[in-house]
């Protein structure tokens, strides 16, 4: 069985397993008031915020884009010509997850009563970045993307949305992340990791952002059940002593570092 087929089968099994194990009783059984609020009110919030339509219009434009670009993938090494529409179909997270990111960032910004310092690994076409920025236009968003032409498309999307303060870094994240954080980061309030989907890369990325995290920080790992390798990364990270509570949402996982939380791992549906 080739590797691609085995990953497809793994993802199918992981999806079924998650549906069987996950629960969401509106927050009942979650002891922390803050985590209870996240589950009861943020995960079950189906209201369309003011910016959702505009961002989703950019997604739709990318899904229909006939443009061919030179694509560089440092993770897999599969470089070459690729349709923008194909990139949009295969790399963009669902509106449901991205809108949850928006609500989490909005909530955290309100809790801390200040703009957030946000780091995103894996800009892609900039749709998730737009959600992170739009939650509070004063947020400081630093996003990393390996492919120059993909970043160019992302920047055009941001410009159409009136988002011209996002700080972007182009290059192999393995090579540019450490020095960029060293020169520009003081604290990371919110991190969204959606870059090279291997266990070792994910562990390395987390290790590099860890010094900038604090007890109120949230970290979201995307595609935690993308492969057995990514699942190993998720299981290892949630075992770290600084991680208190976690939420496994199937397509992504959320890490909390507040020492006041019970050490508990929730498997939830959204």
Write a concise synopsis of the structure shown.
By secondary structure, the chain is of the alpha/beta class.
Topology, please?
Elements: H1 3-21, H2 33-42, H3 52-64, E1 68-71, E2 80-83, H4 84-91, H5 95-112, E3 117-121, H6 127-134, E4 140-145, H7 148-160, E5 167-170, H8 173-184, E6 190-193, H9 199-209, E7 218-222, H10 228-237, E8 245-248, E9 252-256, E10 264-267
Parallel strand pairs: 3-4, 3-6, 4-5, 6-7, 8-10
Antiparallel strand pairs: 1-2, 7-9, 8-9
Descriptive tags:
two-stranded antiparallel ribbon; 270 residues; single chain; Rossmann fold; 10 helices; eight-stranded mixed beta sheet; alpha/beta; 45% helix
Structure report:
The chain is α/β, with parallel strands linked by helices and 270 residues long. 45% of the residues lie in helices and 17% in strands. The protein contains ten helices and ten strands. The chain has helices at residues 3-21, 33-42, 52-64, 84-91, 95-112, 127-134, 148-160, 173-184, 199-209, 228-237; strands at residues 68-71, 80-83, 117-121, 140-145, 167-170, 190-193, 218-222, 245-248, 252-256, 264-267. The radius of gyration is 18 Å and the shape is globular. The model has no long low-confidence stretch (mean pLDDT 92).
- Assigned CATH class: Alpha Beta
Helix-residue proportion: 40-55%
Q: With helices defined by DSSP (H or I, 4 residues minimum), what is the helix count? A: 10
Could you give the order of the helices and strands? HHHEEHHEHEHEHEHEHEEE
Q: Could you name the CATH topology?
A: Rossmann fold
| Uncertain residue ranges | none
For the report, how would you describe the main beta sheet? 8 strands, mixed
Class from secondary-structure proportions: alpha/beta
Mean pLDDT: 92
Proportion of strand residues? 15-25%
Rg, Cα atoms, Å:
18 Å
- The figure for the number of domains is 1
How far apart are the termini? Answer: 33 Å
